[in-house]
From TrEMBL:
InterPro entries: DUF2784. The keyword Transmembrane helix applies. It comes from Candidatus Methylumidiphilus alinenensis. This is DUF2784 domain-containing protein. It comes from the Bacteria. The keyword Transmembrane helix applies. The chain crosses the membrane at residues 12-30, 95-115. Keywords: Membrane, Transmembrane, Transmembrane helix. Pfam families: DUF2784 (PF10861).
């Protein structure tokens, strides 16, 4: 029971990390110090997507599920939990890279806005 609970909690942490990668730039508008955490997290997220790597949290979750007597799953977190629910049927590597560029562009826009606000504040 404890291993299953740990695996479930790890799924929540994994999902929260993905949300932070996607939308953490908005937190930077509120708290600038978060930029260090977010930029490194976003860089990791982009590398994982562009290179089709498996996040280390996925094998960790599978190991916990195996200890709980459950079966793990193949592939990565995104393919197992998010693709069936969020991504369209027929997702191709080309579409996945496009989605990665969308996330990258969104975060670049947020950081450009944040830097502009900082410059305006520093000149006042």
């Amino acid at each position: 029971m404890a291993y299953r609970l740990q695996a479930d909690m790890l799924v929540l942490v994994h999902f929260a990390f993905i949300l932070f990668v996607l939308f953490g730039g908005f937190i930077v508008l509120w708290r600038r110090w978060v930029a260090c955490l977010h930029l490194s997290s976003a860089a990791w997220g982009v590398l994982v997507e562009f290179n089709s790597w498996v996040c280390p949290l996925t094998p960790w979750e599978n190991a916990l599920r195996a200890k709980a007597g459950e079966s793990g799953y193949g592939g990565g977190f995104v393919e197992h939990y998010l693709v069936p629910r969020i991504y369209p049927v027929g997702l191709t590597p080309r579409i996945q890279v496009l989605l990665g560029f969308i996330v990258l562009a969104m975060n670049l826009a947020i950081y450009a806005y944040a830097l502009t606000r900082l410059r305006i504040r520093s000149t006042d």
